[in-house]
Amino acid sequence: MPGSASLSAPQKALRKLGLARDIDLALHLPLRWEDETRITRLAQAREGEAVQIEGTVTDSQLAYRPRRQLVVTIDDGSDTCQLRFFSFYPSQQKALAVGQRIRARGELRGGLYGWQMVHPTCRPAGEPLPTALTPVYSTVATLPQAYLRKAVMAGLARADLSDSFPPGLARHLGLDEGWSLRESLQFLHHPAPDVSMASLENREHPAWQRLKAEELLAQQLSQLVSKRERDALRAPRLAPTPGGLHEQLLQALPFALTAAQRRVAEEIARDLGRCVPMHRLLQGDVGSGKTVVAALAAAVTIDAGWQCALMAPTEILAEQHFRKLIGWLEPLLAPRGLCVAWLTGSQKKKERTAMLAPIASGEAALVVGTHAVIQEQVQPPRLALAIIDEQHRFGVAQRLALRSKMLAEGQEPHLLMMSATPIPRTLAMSYYADLDVSTIDELPPGRTPVVTKVVSDSRRGEVIERIRAQLQQGRQVYWVCPLIEESEVLDLSNATETHQSLSEALPGVQVGLLHSRMPVAEKKAVMARFESGEMGVLVSTTVVEVGVDVPNASLMVIEHAERFGLSQLHQLRGRVGRGAAASACVLLYAPGENGRLGETARERLKAMVETSDGFEIARRDLDIRGPGEFLGARQSGAPLLRFADLELDRPLLEAVRAVAPRVLERHPEMAARHVARWLGGKSEYLKA
Hints:
Layout: H1 9-16, H2 22-26, E1 32-34, E2 50-63, E3 69-75, E4 80-85, H3 90-95, E5 101-107, E6 109-111, E7 114-118, E8 121-124, E9 134-136, H4 145-158, H5 169-172, H6 181-189, H7 197-201, H8 206-232, H9 245-252, H10 259-272, E10 279-284, H11 290-303, E11 307-311, H12 315-333, E12 339-343, H13 349-361, E13 364-369, E14 383-389, H14 396-403, E15 414-419, H15 425-430, E16 436-440, E17 450-456, H16 460-472, E18 476-480, H17 495-505, E19 511-514, H18 520-532, E20 537-540, E21 553-558, H19 566-573, E22 583-589, H20 599-610, H21 614-625, H22 627-631, H23 633-636, H24 650-666, H25 668-679
Parallel strand pairs: 4-7, 10-15, 10-16, 11-13, 11-14, 12-13, 14-15, 17-22, 18-20, 18-21, 19-20, 21-22
Antiparallel strand pairs: 1-9, 2-3, 2-5, 3-4, 5-8, 6-7
């Protein structure tokens, strides 16, 4: 492969699109198709149609009103049409000179001067018409369609498209056996002109069904292989000792576990008691008590003489965990000569060095922190359990780095991932097929339901009156803003301005400000004042999204709520209703220029009002955003489904999921070839 310096701009663009192998090019399917197989006479054309016309240029001139443009008139013998170009090259002007016979394709508009096309695609007339529809591919600026079409055709001709479906599988999945992978790809790159355009666009054509089944099979097989590889690895067998740390912690907790917490704690303990590495996702709604379950898993690990690490995405969240875990575990660890270590990126060198020694000696039985936990100099010699909170907020490389802190005995650590964004069933069946999932599906007693209201920004004064009433009752309030500083692009009120205006509107009330660019010490001081009740209102960016626990806060105002994602809104709402007082969440929105909200924003806010169930919120979020954005897969590297749709193709997903183990068992070579074709190196990501 030539070095990137010797590549042309289109070749670099192909790499940028991930089109490195012949099979990648073959699987780069069109976004849409254009019909260049026929010529439409202007006399028979209809307004709004995308058509191809052929005629002679009768006039070609530059116009300057309302702005510089090239205006070309062509006559096809039945009528005339004006072609308008607002950006053009001298070579185009030459090709469209009076007397030239050309073909133009574009959308026909009726106007004051008869038919018009704006920026049509033009070519000289005379060549034979194509016999198939013309593909239009997704591309980037330096990669013209013509170059990409040639590259795709060459890749399609060279790629190994031999069947990697075992005999009879297509029939078993209910597919049309006449459509092999080769035939499906050749057809979809150049469909016959008489095909139903609807069956192409809604992906119901048998050729599409074959590709969806192939893609889903590759995904399911890769996850089965990943799970089997993991099952072949070894991890320490961790079992709680009678009367040991695990039992002592249960007795020392100031509350009783819910039935759901007990159930998932037992599921995790069973996994830890096996010598196969645990790979489990612990999911539970905001405030369902995942931290105490993690503490119990840590207690089992420490009881067995090993170390545990807990990594959280933000310092505020890591510190919340640290404080709770210290409170619960340190009194039990100190008599054993053990401690809890704390590691973050903002620590001074001296402080961090002081933490590294007990970690390296094994005295620090539990290490809590941010991404600093995975740095090279952090070497826990007996790491047996890695816990990753809000795992979707970490990139794949970071999750793999924590897993790669191998034990001295050459064993793998057990892995427990936690998420307050529940995973809808279809996602669990596909992206998380290799994970065991534990679900905390009840909230602890004492959590009050939160009333959610959607309020226009024009009623801000009423919201401030509501805040004043809450403060008079001795309650506290969050006000969350989406930006820290003025942005020329987004006309949004920022946290600093809001802090100032609320301070003026609420004289005598301490209004705090918290955002991610503040020094850590300052952030901690602000949070301490709010937690102690000294501060009445906390104006913040989304740094309070997870982990902040102030039971006295009873009102959450989210400014420009239309700019937030659904799971983020749900997480923010979860900061209130943590005490006995009736709590509310106000979603302040700014209508668009037409006085209305966009459809997606409206759907999100409607979902927030209609349900407080995190699982239903997650299902709707998946519907609105699709799996790629829901999972953060673009940043994490998880292989996205390009052709199959998790909801629409659910029956096919279930059928493929059922047969995948049999395919792997009976046809291992075919299965390996199938995964390599579809995923290339991406299957490595499943290990995270």
